[in-house]
């Protein structure tokens, strides 16, 4: 079972080399690493090139970038979407392949741990993981993986500016319950630390609630970036 790891990025020169270096074992195991750059203003693409199977550019937008990468992975059995500041657990490929092989479920995600050491971040990650268990909704930080056939069947990520991970999860849930892998991916807590933990919590809950009630994702993206 071959996995294509699709890494969308934008101005990630500070992190992309470290992220991709940690994926080389998976690459040596025969899996693909496809980096999709949103026309970065820095040298992200150049830094990624020696460490990836393919580096391509497309119009900015995480959903568009991930869909574009998925189109290039036409010989992969499984698609794994990984943020440029997120680290997979050891032997992630074996964990995914074993679970998919043993189950009729067709997609899943890992638990997440935030990189910072603040005690309040432990509460945040606990809430994120519990919410995913109860709702069967995965976030992009949790390294969503899916059989390529199902991804194509549902037309991939919805082409929206924000909440594309929630949109994808809702589509996938109509066909299969998710696999929950308790092994943790480690994702950067930089936004939480820069913007403030409680401020970020309130912002994300407000945006999710607005999305649930039909708010325009483009407008939500402007609030998220402000």
Shape: globular
CATH class: Alpha Beta
The end-to-end span amounts to 42 Å
| Helix-strand string | EHHEHEHEEHEHEHHEHHH
Number of strands: 8
* Class from helix and strand fractions: alpha/beta
Structure description:
With 226 residues, the protein is an alpha/beta fold. It has a single domain, classed as Spore Coat Polysaccharide Biosynthesis Protein SpsA, Chain A (Alpha-Beta Complex), CATH 3.90.550. Helix content is 45%, strand content 19%. It is built from eleven helices and eight strands. Strands 3-2-1-4-7-6-8-5 form an eight-stranded mixed sheet. Strand 2, helix 3 (44-48) and strand 3 (54-57) form a beta-alpha-beta unit. Helix 10 (197-212) packs antiparallel against helix 11 (217-225). The longest helix has 17 residues, at 119-135. The relative contact order is 0.15. The mean pLDDT is 93.
Write the layout of secondary structure elements.
Layout: E1 3-9, H1 16-21, H2 24-28, E2 32-37, H3 44-48, E3 54-57, H4 62-72, E4 78-81, E5 86-87, H5 92-102, E6 107-114, H6 119-135, E7 145-147, H7 148-153, H8 164-173, E8 178-187, H9 190-195, H10 197-212, H11 217-225
Parallel strand pairs: 1-2, 1-4, 2-3, 6-8
Antiparallel strand pairs: 4-7, 5-8, 6-7
Helix pairs in contact: 10-11
Put the structure in a nutshell.
With 226 residues, the chain is an alpha/beta fold.
Task: Throw out a few tags for this protein.
226 residues, alpha/beta, Spore Coat Polysaccharide Biosynthesis Protein SpsA, Chain A, 8-stranded mixed beta sheet, 11 helices, globular
